[in-house]
Amino acid sequence: MDKIIIKGGRRLEGRIPISGAKNSALTLLPCALLTDEPLTLRNLPRLADVDGFGHLLNQLGVSTMIEGARPEDFGRVMTLRASRLTSNVAPYDMVRKMRASILVLGPLLARAGEATVSLPGGCAIGNRPIDLHLKALEALGAEIELTAGYVRAIAPQGGLRGGHIHFPVVSVGATENALMASVLAKGETVIDNAAREPEIVDLCRCLVAMGAHIEGIGSEKLIVHGRDRLHGATYRVMPDRIEAGSYACAAAITGGSVDLVGANADDMTAILDVLMQAGATVEVRKDVIHVSATGRLKPVNISTAPYPGFPTDMQAQFMAMLALADGVSVLTETIFENRYMHVPELARMGADIQVTGRSAVVRGVDKLVGAPVMATDLRASMSLILAGLVADGETQVSRIYHLDRGYERLEEKLQAVGADIERIGSD
Ligand code: UD1
Fold this sequence. Notes:
Elements: E1 3-7, E2 13-17, H1 22-28, E3 39-44, H2 48-59, E4 63-67, E5 76-81, E6 89-90, H3 92-97, H4 105-112, E7 114-118, H5 131-139, E8 143-147, E9 150-154, E10 164-166, H6 172-182, E11 188-192, H7 198-209, E12 213-215, E13 221-225, E14 233-236, H8 241-253, E15 257-261, H9 269-277, E16 281-285, E17 288-292, E18 302-303, H10 315-322, E19 328-332, H11 342-348, E20 352-356, E21 359-363, E22 372-374, H12 378-390, E23 394-398, H13 401-406, H14 410-416, E24 420-424
Parallel strand pairs: 2-15, 3-14, 6-7, 10-11, 18-19, 22-23
Antiparallel strand pairs: 1-23, 1-24, 3-5, 4-5, 7-9, 8-9, 11-13, 12-13, 15-17, 16-17, 19-21, 20-21
The structure holds uridine-diphosphate-N-acetylglucosamine (UD1).
């Protein structure tokens, strides 16, 4: 298995292009199931998860064609066409590797009247149940059966019908499944306490481009007027706010000066606010966010929350940064119960972090020291890369397949701004 080797201590300076958003791409791809016409997605990031999702859709009968992108380009254009679905089953082998596979449930059910998807099971950052996804589909008239590790959803005679969905907690994934199912349901669906993440807005805009009628986009109350059919569309995936936030941390932690090109600051208010509280300078110019820092960063207290709060997907990266701040920071993770897997690895590099329940107390140290460390999940991996960029000596990060799920050509982007980072085969 590949490893990433980083020699720390380089100040990062230059421009980093921001890719299309992984979390948006993974909910736009299943929209192809909703129509027999072509859906063309632009600015798709080149990521293992995007490829994996393409393969899952192929198994369901969706053709996928990648157009014109040269190997040196970031982003790709993919045209998906589900002229005729050949299967309505998402098998265990696919879902196991990629949790986002659960997002085929809603659109498949809406289009085919029936969908069977393997239960995703637990995962490294907590239990991650799907009960809210299922309740939402039941509110649209679906019958749900759980058997042998699979969930089977069956639409009533005549198809799904509009309903009232109230989420007791904000769920990004459940809101996405509810939206993709309700756009083809008969009549009106109200989704209360919907997630408001920019990726949900991206999904709504793509669905509208396909002919869906959705009111309240960007708010916690979505009203969907079901259509008999949707049509094809061309849609550009939004920039990845978590990738941009991660590289903003890389600039700040190395005392660097970096332009995040193509990022959208409007989607990143909570992230940029905390960066500035920590003492970094942030300047926004059109679609470029400039982040720089000098000297030691200040401690900050952070609590993760659904959008527009501070994203759980940035908690690990900020922890790496605050491990070197001048004082004590307290981080509280309110979304997932087990999202501190990076703490023991950061501790191996000299960080002083104590976890009690959902909170982590981070006492800033003067320096981190390079060490062999292991990636445990996608964002945790990035926190180790950030620590490695600033640590004394060499850091070896193993299990980097996690990174390949979510960061397009990470080493290339960091090398271009001066990092000493390379990928090697482990043998
Ligand atoms: C979550 C994050 C999202 C992030 C993604 C990957 C939030 C609100 N969601 O999205 O920003 O990009 O992880 O790290 O920040 N829940 C249930 N039952 C369900 C579904 C969810 O109890 O059926 C709970 C979860 O356990 C969790 C909370 O709801 O505590 C939010 O989960 P959800 O938003 O659904 O997770 P993802 O869609 O994976």
